[in-house]
Amino acid sequence: MSARKIEGRLVIASHNPGKLWELRQLLGPHGVDAVSAGELGLPEPEETETTFRGNALLKARVAAQASGLPAFADDSGLCVDALDGAPGVYSARWGGENRDFGAAIERVERELKERGGKPPFTAHFICALAIVWPDGHAEEFEGRVDGVLVFPKRGDKGFGYDPIFLPDGLDKTFGEMMSAEKHALPGDGSIALSHRARAFQALARASLGPRPS
Ligand code: IMP
Q1: 125: Cβ below 6 Å to ligand 1?
Q2: Catalytic residue numbers?
Q3: Where do the structural domains in the chain lie, given as residue ranges?
Q4: Could you tell me if the CB of 162 is within 6 A of ligand 1?
Q5: Distance 1 CA to ligand 1 centre (A)
Q6: Which of 97, 108, 136, 155 is deepest in the core (most CB within 10 A)?
Q7: What is the pTM of this model?
Q8: Exposed, middle or buried: residue 6 (CB in 10 Å: 0-12, 13-18, 19+)?
Q9: CA 8 to CA 45: how far, in whole Å?
Q10: What's the pLDDT band for 137 if we cut at 50, 70, 90?
Q11: Are the CB atoms for 43 and 66 separated by under 8 Å?
């Protein structure tokens, strides 16, 4: 069965202005008008699920019910194999209340040392996207990028765990890349680089109508 198409107005279940801006760039050309949960004064639910998919669905469901509009949400994080997938869905929380990812990166390095692991430290980023309609219908998409962790960290661009993540096949960490290089959505049919861009590519293919010419 083909995915339900997104048309008209869509609520972005995020209070993050950066995410809203990126989504407007992506959705606008397809005739979708994105409005944020913050602009509608909707509450931000607690992320209580134990999977990326579960948290994305939870956030989208709450926003669709509260607004009566289709709602979009995402959840993402870093999974380190030698740490049994941690920090995973707790990636943002490892940064603490101040979102201090310098400290979160030190914690990853410390825990790897404590476990006596040896490089290469394989890891991946995951991004789960969910769209839920007010009638409960849901569509889900996922993007993943594999790589290894490098210490000490490299580069001061990006955010979160970018400076320690070296994607497979490349010689620059995400922290050494411009955002456009990391998140670009290639229009020529090739595969995007970041987990977020890969998930958006899947969403665009399945759920967006053609761009008006
Ligand atoms: P959320 O998806 O907004 O809940 O945030 C997930 C957390 O995972 C972020 O705060 C970052 O720490 C981490 N994360 C997710 N995607 C990336 C990325 O592309 N680079 C670096 N860190 C990321």
Answers
A1: yes
A2: 75
A3: 9-208
A4: yes
A5: 32
A6: 108
A7: 0.92
A8: buried
A9: 25
A10: very high
A11: yes
Q: State the residue for tokens 């069965």.
A: 1
Determine phi and psi for 172, rounding to 5 degrees.
-120, 140
Measured between alpha carbons, how far is 143 from 34 in angstroms, rounded to an integer? 21
Alpha carbon distance 167, 182 (integer Å): 10
Residue 11's CB is within 10 A of a number of other CB atoms, namely 25
Question: Could you tell me if 186 and 192 are in contact, meaning their C-beta atoms sit under 8 angstroms apart?
Answer: yes
d(CA 158, CA 156): 7
Which is more confident, 183 or 70?
A: 70
Q: What's the 151 CA to ligand 1 centre distance in angstroms? A: 19
Tokens of residue 121, six digits: 């430290």
Residue 46 CA, ligand 1 centroid: distance in Å: 16
Ligand 1 close to Cβ of residue 88 (< 6 A): no
Q: Find where tokens 């430290």 sit.
A: 121
**CATH architecture, domain defined by 9-208:** Alpha-Beta Complex (3.90)
